[in-house]
Amino acid sequence: MKLLITGGAGFIGSNFIYYMQTKYPEYEIVCLDSLTYAGNLTTLSDAIKKENFTFVKGDITDKTLVNELFEKNSFEIVINFAAESHVDRSIEDSGIFLMTNIIGTQVLLDAARKYNIRRFHQVSTDEVYGDLPLERKDLFFTEDTPIKTSSPYAASKASADLLAMAYYRTYKLPITISRCSNNYGPFQFPEKLIPLVISRALADEKIPVYGKGENIRDWLYVEDHCEAIDLIIHHDVVGEVYNIGGHNELANIDVVKGILKSLSKPENLISFVADRLGHDMRYAIDSTKISSRLGWLPTTSFDEGIQRTIEWYLNNRTWWNDIVSGEYKTYFEKMYSER
Ligand code: NAD
Ligand code: TDX
Q: Which residues does a 6 A CB cutoff place in the pocket of ligand 2?
């Protein structure tokens, strides 16, 4: 089996590569990643040691490079993780989001079509459904919930999903799509809530909480997401969308307080700051479809997953220290100084 994994130097893609290398050591894996600010080759330092793993630095919007790569390798499955993934950055400047998330996906879909790929899996997000009201705890996103995006990031991801579905309908390209809730775990870039809180708390720095911190996210340990994708790509049915979520709904403020408690840090590190524009209130996934059809269920509870994650950040300080002391510093000042 030969796989192309795009965006594998990022958070979920790298976890997926390690998951696949452990479970299917015989698979050949090629990772295509342009190493944006969010991509980190040191994340893949152990993966690269394996003989049947190849890293290619390149952009998914680069049609020539992508076609050459498909020509040279007989990929059977393509899994597209590559994306601009941070909502706040998309609110500042959406251009690169449209390029990578939409055009990049189109370039990959065209190549997949030209080279008769057996499966094209698009890694999408629950954010394509917009949000749910805080006071309606009975409501969940299903695969039939209408697309109703809030941020430019979400709009770009939804566009990619629609393109993938169009390629299925028009060209019978064997695609699948997964829409997952918020992930957390090792190798997550510290701009995202959980690693941001851990890294700043460890440095006794203020922790910015948007608005009142009452927004709800449905947290899933990254390995559970990897397992779901593994099941989808190895299941014969195509043209399907699967929601993935952990029924782990938590208000941001409770996540932040929980991490501070685990690290024995004071709650006065919390600083309530101006809210994110268009901030989605609540995400909550109904994952009945993937559970009933593919037998997927999350296995890591939030309590266990967050402890593992905190330990990982404690044991891998060089990994994130290199990030937070570099160009990220300028990003943080720009994003948060006037909030
Ligand atoms: P990430 O930002 O950590 O990683 C993205 C990776 O893509 C990086 O390695 C980056 O270098 C690479 N990349 C970006 N632009 C590229 C381009 N033009 N060409 C090639 N590579 C490029 O993102 P993540 O959190 O790992 O998310 C992975 C995927 O999962 C994304 O598609 C995201 O939308 C989706 N997703 C993420 C979450 C989450 O909670 N993080 C939840 C649901 C879905
Ligand atoms: O400094 C912060 N303070 C804060 O209160 C940051 C960075 C975030 N937040 C809030 C905003 C959200 O309600 O925490 C929540 C989580 O924020 P993010 O980590 O930025 O994630 P979110 O916006 O929910 O999007 C994530 O989940 C869906 C991923 O970044 C997306 O790539 C994925 O598609």
A: 85-87, 125, 127, 182, 192-193, 196, 208-210, 215, 217, 252, 276
Q: What pLDDT was estimated at residue 145?
A: 98
Are 5 and 22 in contact by the 8 Å Cβ rule? The answer is: no
Task: Kindly report, residue by residue over 306-317, the tens digit of the pLDDT.
Answer: 999 999 999 999
Q: What is the pLDDT of residue 127?
A: 98
If we measure between CA atoms, which residue out of 130, 125, 132, 119 comes closest to residue 160?
A: 125
For atom 16 of ligand 2, the residue with the nearest CA is: 193
Q: How far is the CA of 27 from the centre of ligand 2 (A)?
A: 33
Domain 2-186+220-248+277-300 CATH assignment equals 3.40.50.720:
yes
Looking at the CA of residue 193, tell me the nearest atom of ligand 2.
19
Tens-place pLDDT, residues 165-180 = 999 999 999 999 999 9
| pLDDT (0 to 100) of residue 246 | 87
Whether 269 has a pLDDT exceeding 90, the answer reads yes
Counting from 1 in the atom list of ligand 1, the atom nearest the Cα of 157 is 34
- How many whole angstroms separate alpha carbon 61 and alpha carbon 64? 9
108: enclosing H helix or E strand? helix 105-114
Ligand closest to the CA atom of residue 16: 1
C-alpha span between 141 and 243 (Å, rounded): 8
